[in-house]
Design goal:
Largest sheet: 8 strands, parallel
Protein name: Aldo/keto reductase
Shape: globular
CATH superfamily: NADP-dependent oxidoreductase domain
CATH architecture: Alpha-Beta Barrel
Distance between the termini: 44 Å
InterPro entries: Aldo-Keto_reductase (IPR050791), NAD(P)_OxRdtase_dom_sf (IPR036812), NADP_OxRdtase_dom (IPR023210)
Structural class: alpha/beta
Radius of gyration: 19 Å
Pfam family, one: Aldo_ket_red
Strand content: 5-15%
Keywords: Oxidoreductase
Order of helices and strands: EEEHEHEEEHEHEHEHEHHHEHH
Strand order of the largest sheet: 3-4-5-8-9-10-11-12
Number of helices: 11
């Protein structure tokens, strides 16, 4: 697979693998042996960037996903870039399937988190360490200073921020250069495009999570799709309702038509569209099936011209779409 550079010097595969779904949020977790084999198969396909987080886990093991990633990649560690995250915990008192997030970026919390992640990932350093959500009670300069210290100590080599505003990014970047932001981005969720000029100015990369709107843009989900209301976040996402299925027909027809023209799949067109917008965008689709990983990897070979991307953008701005899941609720740690 082709590679891309995030920030000044972090070289990664053009498409990364989001590993969360093996443990969390998309139904029952995958059996450990099967998940580890799938992650290794992705490496064999050319994926080098693997995204996880300390909070991606199961009811029995809240840190399950990092352990899977660490075990799968331990003998190829020098050939991959491991991405993990700190700074949130779940509100366990909530009965919702998608439990609210409680941010905590206090320096002592970060220190405990990085040590735990290093141990579970079976590594001596993290290639890209993301602040999972902004903590309004901790100034960006304070977080950035901890990152600078961790880089100096060799525990991380690069850092980033997820779901970040321009002001927070600029303030943090002045203390310790940010390598990438990780934000939700897809044909249905384009609100972070306003941040692109700032990213170009600061030489900060963009890691796109949920690049296919939680799977909707693959075209694989039909009307009346049922998801486990206890284990699957999609059961509560607005793009998977009966009403949304009708409203999104034109969008899916657009994708299918583009896919036919390119002898590709809708998923590949969804990824190619963002890859061809900017050379510093790296999508991290999550899949547990190796055939889907292979399909997604193929998107890196599809080249759309600037004119084709602009035409797609224009179409996306004019056709009807349902609401799309925009992120998990964040609550204050003061009340939890």
């Amino acid at each position: 697979m082709n590679s891309r550079t995030l920030g000044a010097d972090l070289n990664v595969s053009a498409i990364g693998l989001g590993c969360m779904g093996f443990s969390h949020a998309y139904g029952p977790p995958t059996e450990d042996d099967e998940a580890i084999q799938a992650i290794r198969t992705a490496f064999d396909m050319g994926y080098t960037m693997f995204d996880t987080a300390e909070t991606y886990g199961t009811a029995e093991d809240p840190h399950h996903n990092e352990k899977l990633v660490g075990e799968a990649l331990k003998d190829v560690r020098s050939q991959v870039q491991i991405v993990t995250k700190f700074g949130i915990r779940f509100d366990k008192t909530s009965k919702a399937v998608n439990k609210p997030l409680i941010p905590d970026a206090r320096p002592e919390t970060i220190r405990a988190s990085v040590e735990g992640s290093l141990r579970r990932l079976q590594t001596d350093h993290i290639d890209l360490y993301f602040q999972h959500r902004v903590d309004p009670k901790v100034e960006p300069e304070a977080v950035a200073q901890v990152m600078a210290d961790l880089i100096r100590e060799g525990k991380i080599t690069h850092w980033g921020i997820s779901e970040v505003s321009e002001d927070y990014l600029r303030r943090a970047h002045r203390v310790c250069p940010v390598t990438a932001v990780q934000n939700r981005y897809s044909m249905m969720a384009r609100w972070h495009e306003s941040l692109f000029p700032v990213l170009e100015e600061l030489n900060v990369g963009f890691v796109a999570f949920s690049p296919m709107a939680n799977g909707l843009l693959t075209g694989a989900y039909g009307k009346g799709e049922q998801f486990d209301p206890k284990l699957d976040y999609r059961s509560a996402m607005p793009q998977f309702t009966q009403e949304a299925a009708k409203k999104n027909q034109e969008l899916l027809y657009l994708l299918q038509g583009l896919a036919v023209q390119r002898n590709a799949t809708p998923a590949q067109i969804s990824l190619a569209w963002m890859l061809c917008k900017k050379p510093w965008i790296v999508p991290i689709p999550g899949s547990r099936k190796t055939e889907r990983m292979q399909e997604n990897a193929g998107a890196a070979d599809i080249v759309l011209t600037n004119e084709e991307v602009a035409a797609i953008d224009q179409a996306l701005s004019s056709i009807p779409m349902s609401a799309v899941f925009g992120g998990t609720e964040v609550v204050s740690r003061e009340t939890k």
